[in-house]
Each structure stands twice: as structure tokens, then as C-alpha cells.
Structure to design on (402 residues):
């Protein structure tokens, strides 16, 4: 009986060991897919080198809304009118830890027209319909020669559907202004209290 | 030897069966905790029945920003001035499927003062510092007698730190206005294009 027990325990040990190995690899594959998830948010480019419009940005982390109403920028604001600005969730996690916009940071700006100008909460500006979509993308790989490695893409100032692809804007069109925020890696953090509050002290 | 093999296989079978049972319950507890994850976002209440201020709302799903500047609402807007509005992620998932704000929906409103009124992007309104925090919470369990089962909480119109707890506002203070949006379950969806776009057709 002693020998029988030994044999059984040997089998049991091998079986349990095998299961541990399986569980180890399963856990490993989970953590690998998590570490690699930034790729989820990286924009893709077509054969012509144009960016394919990223989707799902309305569920990214919101950082703020500058508002430039057409009524204050006759005949029309350069970016009409609300600018809802988001950062991709992976880069946000990195920012909260380091205070830096990491390589491959994506910032999305969705424009919305002013709708009503009065409501029960007071006089002001209330969002109407979507009116445009733009992306800023920081990538040393894609933009080694752009200031701060940021490039800017506009998918149209228009109602949905926005354009499916966009070519990189010339430096004079976007970076030339953003460079004023060089101390904050070309992001106008002075208009984004959410970002300022999250920056490590 | 035949008998020994049978005994070993019996042990192995029992062991494997036991492991399957363990895995089944482990998977069950994972899916239970997932199905129950809405509890992550449900506000807690103290012994006095006051809501304890929820944290992490800046990473919820953003739905829009009404703006009521003090300059248009002398001497001061009822809600100064930008209203950054978020919905808890679980209730957002439910809304996208059903078009309804489910029981236990939490909507957070963080107020921000106007900072600059001109930038390279034009004349307008740019966010300055945070200025207040409020919650709307729909709960049949907690508020069986409130209109739509929504109750409203203000944690102060002030810079951070906001108040740690808040008592439910009287119906006349909040619900009396929100009831104008009764067709949209007391949420002013006309000011939130993100919500309108997500509503199933």
C-alpha cells in the first residue's frame, strides 16, 4: 500500500505541476497583452502615408474644452466652436506617473458647434452638433523631423461623417502655434486643469 | 497492475474533477465580480445619510460641457462656469445598448472657472481653475420618492478641496428644473451630442 500511495502522489504531483505551468503561461499571456495594449490606440496609416481616422476617441480620457464661438471670431473661428479634447488612456496613465507626454501619445480634438445660448442654468453656450475632428500624434518613428515629434491631422471641419483619412498638416498650419507651449511639450496645458491636476508634483 | 492503474485513474479523475470544480467557481467569481462591477461606481453614504464624494470621476466617460460664464450671468452664474459632465462607465455601456439611464446611473459635474479669453486659436473661453463638484444619482433603492428616482448633491462651489460629503438637495433646488427634460429621464441630452450620437436608433 505504501508503494501504491507513492505512485499516486507522483501522478498527482505531475498533474498539479502541469496545471501550474498552464496557469503560469495563461497569466503570462494576459500580462503581455496588457503591456502591449498601447498599440490599441496608435493610429494606423494607409499606403499613401495618410492617417486613418481613429475611432472610439469619445471614450478616451477627457482633458478639457476650449470654446471659440463664431460670434466672437467673425466670420468664423479657426476651430468652430467647442473643442472637446481627449488623450488616449495608455498615454494618460504614463502622464500621471511621469508628467510627460510619451512617445506615441495621441490627442484627439472633436469640434462641436454652439447650439442654444440660454437654458435654465443660465446664459451661455450649449453644445449643438459635431463639426470636426482632428488628431495630434507624437511619434519619433513617424515624425523624426517635426518639432517635438508631433504631427497634426484634420479630418475636416464638417458634420459627420468626417473624412476617413488625413494627410499631415504643414508645420506652418499647426506646429507654428503649438510651439508657443514648448515648455509643456507643445500641449497648451494652461487650458487643461485636468492635466495640471494630474501632473506629479 | 490492472487494478493499480484503475485506482490511479480514479484518483486522477477525482483530482481533475475537483480542479474543474475549482476553476468553475473561480470563473464564476470573475464573472460575478464583472457583472457586479457597477458597484465600483456607486456612491457610498455615511451614517447621517450624506453622500460621500465619489473619486476618479475625471476618468469616467465625458458627455459634454455647457458653459455659463459669470460675465453673461451677473453677478454670478448659478453654476460657475464650465460644467464638465461625465457618466460612470458601467451605466454608459448600458446606455449605448438600451438608450436608457439605468437604475444606479451616476452623472458627475465638475465646474471650472473661465481663465483666459483669448488664445492663438481665437477669442473665447478657456478653462482656468476647478470651481465645484456635483453629482446626480438615480437610485430606486435610495430615492423611491424623488422624481425619476434622481437625487442631486453639491459638494460645494469652491476650489478644491471640495466638501467630503453632501446632503441630498431639496426637489425645488435641482429636480424642479431637470423635470423639464422628463422625456429624456431628466437628463438634458439636447446639450450632449455625445449622448445623442450613442443612443441606439
Amino acid at each position: 500500500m505504501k508503494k501504491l500511495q507513492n505512485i499516486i502522489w507522483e501522478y498527482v504531483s505531475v498533474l498539479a505541476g502541469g496545471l501550474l505551468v498552464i496557469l503560469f503561461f495563461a497569466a503570462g499571456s494576459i500580462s503581455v497583452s496588457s503591456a502591449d495594449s498601447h498599440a490599441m490606440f496608435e493610429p494606423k496609416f494607409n499606403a499613401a502615408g495618410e492617417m486613418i481616422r481613429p475611432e472610439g476617441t469619445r471614450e478616451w480620457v477627457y482633458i478639457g474644452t476650449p470654446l471659440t464661438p463664431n460670434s466672437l471670431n467673425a466670420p468664423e473661428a479657426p476651430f468652430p466652436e467647442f473643442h472637446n479634447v481627449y488623450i488616449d488612456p495608455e498615454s494618460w496613465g504614463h502622464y500621471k506617473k511621469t508628467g510627460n507626454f510619451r512617445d506615441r501619445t495621441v490627442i484627439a480634438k472633436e469640434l462641436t458647434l454652439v447650439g442654444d445660448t440660454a437654458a435654465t442654468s443660465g446664459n451661455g453656450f450649449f453644445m449643438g452638433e459635431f463639426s470636426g475632428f482632428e488628431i495630434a500624434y507624437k511619434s519619433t518613428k513617424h515624425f523624426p523631423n517635426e518639432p517635438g515629434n508631433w504631427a497634426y491631422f484634420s479630418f475636416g471641419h464638417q458634420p459627420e461623417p468626417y473624412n476617413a483619412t488625413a494627410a499631415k498638416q504643414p508645420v506652418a498650419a499647426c506646429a507654428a502655434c503649438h510651439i508657443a507651449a514648448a515648455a509643456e511639450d507643445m500641449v497648451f496645458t494652461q487650458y487643461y486643469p485636468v492635466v495640471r491636476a494630474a501632473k506629479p508634483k
